[in-house]
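Protocol step 4 of 6: record predicted structures for both targets in the notebook before any analysis. Target 1:
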Amino acid sequence: MKTLLNQSGTLLPSKRILVPVDFSELSTNALEYALHLAKKTNAELHLIHAYDFEIFMYDSVQISQTENDLEKEILQQLEKLKQTIHLTNPGLKIVYKAIIGVPVDEINAYTQKEKIDLIVIGTQGAGYIQERMLGSTASLLIRNAKAPVIIIDKTVKFKDPKQIVLAADFQKTDHTKVLNPLKDFAKLYDSHICILNIYPHIQLIPSLEEIPEGFRLDYSLKDVKHTFFSLESDQIIERINDFVEHHKIEMIAMIARKHSFFSRIFREPLTKEMSFHSHVPLLVLHD
């Protein structure tokens, strides 16, 4: 993979960043965030509008519109968006595509085919599932994406992630592979990673399985600044919120997998589960 020098002189890979767009305020805000990342890493930006034609036509007042007409209209909008971006970012490489099909399936297929490194998608925070395209797609990508995903609430504006919290549960993980995107961010922005473990009141000490995983995690992050934190609480989301506010965190990172710290959060009611990252980006890594 092509590499380049960042401002500090370290080598970073040239990335491909995918942004699902539906031309809403949500996707525009996510695109703004992605643009900052693309410019920092000289990444190639992929704009994808994936839609289910039958559902679109069921909801649309333009019942007579054909599939080809709709695709042509969307491609025109994507070209206009590309030209708008190039007004202020003339050297940025932009690829766009309109795809018919179930959005999350098409995004995952495109991600694998084009070797996408990162997906950036917008949400509306608590209750975002009501958003037609990006809402449900973001919810599914959180759990099932084929690349790391950054979830951007509509209120989030880009800030250099100098402080990142990794919500960790010390379960067995291939840290070398899973944590690479997080380490890329830390090196790119000279970030400090706060490794936060929240354990329930009934668990007084780490289990025998958790102790060696903690050491492995520490070793995997040896080349970036990091500190371990442990909090005792049964209220995971509230403690994350408190930690983010107290430590002025600019990004939350979590590893998505079944039967984990992550799944404990996502068993919460939907409006509650998403509220904890409303004010900062959420980086979802996949085991």
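Target 2:
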Amino acid sequence: MAAPSGQVISQPLATLPPAAPAPVAAPKPAAPQAVAAAPKPVTTTKTTQVYTVQAKDTLYGISRRFGVPLKSLMGQNGLAEGAGLSIGQKLKLPEAAKDSGSGAHATGPAPAKVVTTVAVAPPKPVTKPVETPKPEVKVTTTVAVADTTKPTTTTVTTTATPVAKPVEKPVEASVGKPVVAKAGAFPTSSVLAQMGKGQFIWPVKGPLLVPYGQLGPNVRNDGINIGADAGAEVRAAADGEVVYVGGHVKELGNTVYVQHGNGWYTGYSHLEKLGVKTNQKIQKGEVIGTVGKTGAVEKPQLHFEIRYTPSTEIAKPIDPNLVMP
């Protein structure tokens, strides 16, 4: 029925049905990661010097020519005490060996260099963790507005960020190289004198027969020779441990080498009697043997050496007069 003129009939706004929620978008699957190619094998080269033994060569002469200790030379070639040499025998030299030229008991040519190629295991490839995409969640809300004939739809987009667990970065594998100790600069004579001051005593008293150093072409004395009566007691110059007792070096005869602390060594040769054994601990002043004339000498005397090394490789001879009282 029509309303009278000038009258307005109000009717309640019809309730609008709720809109259907929009579907939640599923996250896209992550693209597969490319697999890195396997690393190629790593190779390294090692150069070894090899000396060929000649007639009249001796281990002592070879060790003096190349500036390496007898013990290192013997160990490098698996030689036992008293082992002899044969002509044409190949001897491997320690890495730090330096050729000083042909000598009376090391007459061979310059050592040959043998290069060996060694394969080293490559580092394991590091797999990068796959990142999970952040899911996006859409929420749709429908709001009815009273002063319009059509409902207004407002879309609110909310991005939910999941809490990611901390990813531990894998430790990269590295190709390990033998680790080798680098020798420091060899001390000067003045520094050696300060370092050795007060550490040593004379092993025997007597006149100086042969001084230290270069005595002529291909003739060098790595220590000093002290004259003494046959049978005189020879005493340790300092506390230490006996590292060699033997007589396989013909020129030196019966010999004792003692290792002291902080890189110092002493040697005693031409002994008549040997009073100590290898690995024996000894005290400064303790009797280690008696004066004799074994080896390439004609009268009783003691060949006395002092050596020093700032590393664990080579102990170089020094003039004993630098550090003796």
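Step 5 preliminary note on target 2. Confidence is low (pLDDT under 50) at residues 1-16, 139-163, 168-183. The longest helix spans residues 59-66.
Proceed to step 6 after PI sign-off.
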